[in-house]
Amino acid sequence: MEEKEYLEDHEELLKTVLDRQPADEVLYDLAELFKVFGDSTRIKILYAMFETELCVNDIARLLNLSQSSVSHQLRILKTSKLVKFRREGKSVFYSLDDEHIKLILSMGMEHVEE
Amino acid sequence: MEEKEYLEDHEELLKTVLDRQPADEVLYDLAELFKVFGDSTRIKILYAMFETELCVNDIARLLNLSQSSVSHQLRILKTSKLVKFRREGKSVFYSLDDEHIKLILSMGMEHVEE
DNA sequence: TCAACATATGTTTATTTGTTCATATTATAA
DNA sequence: TTATAATATGAACAAATAAACATATGTTGA
């Protein structure tokens, strides 16, 4: 019976799909990561840091955002290890944590610019 | 005056940063794209399609999701051109729109798995 | 120690968003 | 055409979240 065989193969295939799914926890973390990229304010901040490290006040002035808003967003970026920071006197300078971040943004940009 | 020169250079730098920022609209679209990746249900669905095209019902059974939920999420994935689909009788088969999608997910995965 | 400046954090509010339930659409087979 | 199966869509509700405002913390120099 051809129909039966097809259905069996299909069930086999579905099992394979399930087997290769990463663990729920990992998929959850992955979603959390992309969620962080999923806000235009944070994207703006990340792009501003493509060139150079920036302090909170510079970011706020540059992008026309409130100090509070920038600080809140930087905390989120910090938590998800997208930015690192160093203190210099009263100022705190933030920069992209690694080149990886640029890659992810660039990949997304390619898809958007099609 | 060294201090004054430093400040001037800094202002120059900030201007450069602003100049190189992509247009707001583009950054907005980019955020919208990542927002789509920013949900674990959608991530699960996308990962399931790494191997093969799947119909709505298969996805729902496989991932323990309601038909309605899957259908709603597929609409979002369709709108942002992350998946394509073809009709075959009563069923609709969905698959990843291009290899690009896998790349973006893999990039994110690398960051998560560190 | 005190004033000022830079940054961080807590809270509230308005908006966005994912899910569920009910119903509509589309396609097949009898 | 009618019943049934597969998918899509609309509406309502609850949870998540970004921004604004107020306030706290930390740092420097007088």
Q: Pairing-aware structural class of the strands and helices of chain A?
A: alpha+beta
Name of the CATH first level of the largest domain in chain A: Mainly Alpha
User: CATH topology of the largest domain in chain A, which one?
Assistant: Arc Repressor Mutant, subunit A
Per CATH, the architecture of the largest domain in chain A is Orthogonal Bundle
Mean pLDDT of chain A equals 93
Instruction: Name the pair of protein chains with the most residues at their interface, and give those residue counts.
Output: A-B, 50 and 50 residues
Number of separate structural domains of chain A: 2
Number of helices of chain A: 6
What's the name of the CATH homologous superfamily of the largest domain in chain A?
A: Winged helix-like DNA-binding domain superfamily/Winged helix DNA-binding domain
Strand order of the largest sheet of chain A: 1-3-2
Order of helices and strands of chain A: HHHEHHEEH
Q: Taking Cα atoms only, what radius of gyration of chain A do you get, to the nearest Å?
A: 21 Å
Distance between the termini of chain A: 46 Å
Helix content of chain A: 55-70%
Strand proportion of chain A: 5-15%
Query: Count of DSSP E strands of chain A?
Result: 3
The gross shape of chain A turns out to be: elongated
Profile the largest sheet of chain A: 3 strands, antiparallel
Low-pLDDT sequence parts of chain A: none
Oligomer: homodimer
